[in-house]
Amino acid sequence: MTPLDLAIVVPVFNERGNVPLLVAALDAALASIAWEAIFVDDDSPDGTADVARAIARHDPRIRVIQRIGRRGLSSACIEGMCATAAPLVAVIDGDLQHDETLLPRMAAALTADPALDLVIGSRFVAGGGTGAWDADRVAKSALATRLSRRVLKADLSDPMSGFFMIRGEVVRRVVPRLSGIGFKILLDILTAAPQPLKFVELPYVFRTRAVGESKLDHVVALEYLIALYDRMFGRVVPVRFVMFSAIGAAGAIVHLAALGLLLELGAGFIAATIVATVAAMTFNFFLNNHLTYRDRRLRGPRALLDGWVSFCAVCSVGAVANVGVAAFLYDVRGGAWALPALAGIAVGAVWNFALSSRFTWG
Ligand code: GDD
Ligand code: MN
């Protein structure tokens, strides 16, 4: 048996048509290397994991991790990278947009220079390219790259690249510091390392996707900003709390709008307040489920109902705490209402956040 040289981690979500194509492409590209491929699937509805397992039964180089109840490209890559004994670990998209024929040269570069930590596939060095991207995507990618420079001290051309090869020992060193949020695993690794990592960039041309659909959407764009925030300030105020609070503020507007509307329609104040409160809590529950806790999202009528009930229960106690703290401070300070009100809101928000993260999305 030749010793295992290289693990190729392939994050996949709804890529059943691409899995066999990628295995064949890897087989052709990696003739002289002992490799394994680890498909990390997030329980894709299209049965991607079944397709990968069917291949794995005949080919021991193929492995499958099926994560159930979790979503996220970066966290899937981290999980795959930690699941191998190979000294070198590559990450490559499962949709054949990255150029697998670059892998042997990436491995050769790491073997030739023991001081090198990783090799990055770049679309923006001479010989690379973004293929058939429209002007809109080029502009968005350029903006994301510019933003990344605020957290990145290293000078590299393509920090947005999701195609790279790294030493397993380097991965294990940085994993405890990774945020695992969103799409940008490479940026996460580069900014997490305590000392700057030594890297080289090799050019490749980003191919157009032939089979399946991209998962990049507006929420992924938002997650990118969240990941940057997390890197810059996450240790001071956790990113989930910031999102939770922002959504809470939007909920207050929903509350006021509903209350105003109901009063306008002739409802009594108590009844209108109850309805407005439930409307605001419901709004907050769904938005938090969709954004703040996207990686642990509750799905299906049963889970959603249970989650909604527990969220409303938590928030009701939070509201009592809010009123209690505000009333107490108002008594003590006499007259000035803004500070007691804000203190009440802050205590309520922290309570709601702490308890709902434990009981609703725990
Ligand atoms: N396990 C898992 N979980 N895999 C996912 C998820 C997820 O939540 N979301 C996406 N993937 C997989 C896809 O199935 C695909 O194999 C790969 O991750 C890339 O996703 P795409 O949806 O095809 O992304 P893209 O083509 O827009 O973005 C790629 O290009 C960027 C360069 O602009 C990604 O590779 C980025 O990492 C890369 O930087
Ligand atoms: Mn893609």
UniProtKB/TrEMBL annotation:
CDD domains: DPM1_like (cd06442). It comes from the Bacteria. It is a multi-pass membrane protein. It is found in: Membrane. Keywords: Glycosyltransferase, Membrane, Transferase, Transmembrane, Transmembrane helix. InterPro entries: DPM1-like (IPR039528), Glyco_trans_2-like (IPR001173), GtrA_DPMS_TM (IPR007267), Nucleotide-diphossugar_trans (IPR029044). The chain crosses the membrane at residues 241-263, 269-287, 308-330, 336-361. Belongs to the glycosyltransferase 2 family. This is Dolichol monophosphate mannose synthase.
